[in-house]
Amino acid sequence: MDVSQLWVYIVPPVAGGIIGYFTNDLAIKMLFRPYKPIYIGKKRLPFTPGLIPRNQERLAKRVSDTIMGSLLTPGELQNLARRLLQRERVQSALLWLLQLALKQIQEDREQKTAKILGEILRDLFSGSLPRLLKALARRENFLEDQINHIFDQVILEFRLTDVQAKKLADWLLQVVLPPDLLRQALVDFLTDRNIQIIDEGFREKTSGTTWVVANLFGLKNSLVRLRTFCLDEKEIANARLKELILSLEVRDRIRIWLQSFSLQNLPLSTVRQLRKTTRDTVRQYVQEKGGNLIQGLGTSVDWDKLAAILIKNLRNSEVVNTSLQTISWELALILERYLEEDLERLVSQIIPILAIDQVIVDRVNATDAEQLENTVQGIVKNELQAIVNLGGILGFGIGVLQSIFFLLRS
Fold this sequence. Notes:
Layout: H1 3-30, E1 39-40, E2 43-44, H2 51-54, H3 56-71, H4 74-84, H5 87-106, H6 112-137, H7 144-155, H8 162-176, H9 179-189, H10 192-204, H11 209-216, H12 220-232, H13 234-247, H14 250-260, H15 268-300, H16 303-315, H17 318-354, H18 356-366, H19 369-409
Antiparallel strand pairs: 1-2
Helix pairs in contact: 1-19, 3-18, 4-17, 5-17, 6-15, 6-16, 7-15, 8-14, 9-12, 9-13, 12-13
């Protein structure tokens, strides 16, 4: 076999392999290139731009439909939300937010938070709370349980101590019933008519030796003289009354009586009526004057200063700092229970709001052809190269078959 015949058998496999290799490589590149259409005059050359750039909008829609139809289904989004919203993750996020809010309050040099809190407190006490209190006071059972509890546990069992009873007795004798007031009360009581009634009654209702004294001497002259003495000798009368109070140990008697006094000694019906009267009195007072009382309190308090004090105490409170963990955990539990019931409904509402399909479409459309090619090449580079190599192998194989055919013919 000479050299010219040898080339007949060698060229077909080599040429077929080269043609198959570069044909597949060219076909793959034509998927993306040229990136922009090429015009000769007003006519666009066929196959420009590449297949994918020319159909990028349709490709974007198809990718979006595929992802939303098989990957990001509502069920998968719910599972994703459950994994993202696990209790520990939610608790960590809430704890971070609470700590951030507390830090913001601590670094508030302009006291914006205190001003806002002051306005809230001012509005609460000047308008909202009085109106709410008036509305609640119209109810028949307003503060019924609370007042009954206070009455039964505090007022009903209240007793004065020895020191308290002594001070109250001194106050009664020095302020409420001083000797001068007792003298004046005695003068006011001993009018001519009262003296006449006492004298006649003493005469008619006595007997024996007392009757003889009453009818011979009577009480009229003695009572008139006592009244005259109290009017003419005020200082002396006051001194005598003071001595009489000391002699009769009135202070000690009042102290003992006050110390032994208790509502528990009253009849049960009286106690019940007193409790009802107390409840009705409080409710009526709150209904009529409670709103004005709260408003007056609201106008008399410097709420900005009070709010600043509250914020300062909040910043330095160890209880607040140590309780953030517990608060965030409890909030996470509440959120978890809420999501267990409404997660499906929330996901169905969130999907249209997020418009994930449109985001995918916009993102694919916004990607230029070169970047899209690099992205695809980065994902399936080995697979595309295998297709090119396969083209070369097939071309080489066809060339070998052709050489065999030539060899058999010869």
